[in-house]
Design a protein that fits this description.
With 301 residues, the chain is α/β, with parallel strands linked by helices. Helix content is 53%, strand content 16%. It is built from twelve helices and nine strands. Helix 1 (3-20) crosses helix 4 (63-86). It starts with a helix and ends with a helix. The model has no long low-confidence stretch (mean pLDDT 91).
């Protein structure tokens, strides 16, 4: 991406944050749907990839059903962006009224135990809104990690946006961020990580909807090293503006096995919890990139 294109991308996102949050909510919802439907009709690479991914999640869906799901998926994806642009200006009271998380006592009790808590989520619905529910409604600060985006100014916008919601944001830079996360957990803190895609060599191979994929080892390794509770969380949308979710039971550290074996077992358990939530609400899974290993190998062939 060249400097001119960097400035264009950053400018468009800046326009979104500055403009969309000033729109009346019904107008922002309608705008998001129009953009989603226009994008879906163009049948670009992202839409086709989303459809291919959904075909794995809903294997018995025919072409017409897949098109319906991908259209709903693009609407869900654009709803995420419209909501995210508006979040910094949202009345914090709404984090309690618009968000309903089932079994939140699991999270509360884990935090109260002082062990430290790792919340791991897939790209379902609006994880930023769920984060605002944690900070604004539960009153729990937490730390997260953000991938370094290009241009750098866009990354800075994302960091400032999430920090405005009460989150501590660390750059995704390997050992340094891992060490900081471990320190937060050892002091009884809460960290939240989006964890359904890892294309690095350190990614853990899991069975995901019947085929091999890779997910990050970090959540399982942090739980083993610090004694923190690893809690998978899945989300889904209701009618606007409602967001729902579920705190899944803690993923335990296996009693026996090597660190590698324990990490593999825990990451698979995390993937299974993600799969359950995604299968129940596939239209809210915003996976517009290649994920499964055979899809990645096909691209590189």
């Amino acid at each position: 991406m060249g400097a001119a294109q960097d400035r264009l991308v950053d400018g468009l996102y800046g326009l979104g944050w500055a403009g969309v949050k000033k729109l009346p909510e019904p107008a922002a919802v309608a705008l998001g749907r129009r953009i989603a439907d226009y994008t879906w009709k163009k049948r670009g690479k992202s839409v086709l990839r989303l459809e291919a991914n959904l075909a794995r999640v809903v294997p018995d869906a025919g072409p017409e059903r897949l098109r319906e799901l991908s259209k709903a998926g693009m609407r869900s994806y654009m709803r995420y962006w419209m909501e995210s642009f508006r979040l910094p200006a949202m009345d914090p009271v709404r984090f309690g009224t618009d968000v309903e998380i089932k079994d939140d006592h699991i999270l509360r009790e884990a935090v109260a135990s002082g062990r430290g808590v790792i919340v791991a989520l897939p790209h379902l619905a609006n994880w930023d809104l769920a984060g605002a529910w944690v900070t604004g409604h539960l009153g729990l600060p937490f730390t997260t990690v953000a991938e370094r985006l290009k241009p750098e100014s866009l990354y800075d916008r994302f960091v400032a946006y999430r920090e405005s919601l009460g989150m501590e944001v660390l750059p995704h830079n390997g050992p340094s961020s891992f060490g900081t996360l471990a320190r937060r957990l050892r002091s009884g803190g809460l960290i939240c990580l989006v964890a359904d895609r890892d294309l690095s060599a350190s990614g853990v191979r899991v069975d995901f909807f019947g085929s091999a994929a890779r997910m990050p080892a970090g959540p399982a390794l942090l739980a083993q090293q610090t004694g923190a509770a690893l809690l998978p969380v899945t989300l889904y949308y209701g009618e606007s503006p409602q967001l729902y979710g579920r705190i899944h039971p803690e993923v335990p550290v296996p009693r026996t096995g090597t660190r590698t074996e324990k990490t593999a077992a825990m990451t698979q358990a995390m993937a299974d919890a993600f799969a359950q939530g995604i299968a129940e609400h596939p239209e809210d899974w915003h996976m517009l990139q290649r994920l499964w290993l055979d899809d990645l190998e096909e691209r590189s062939a």
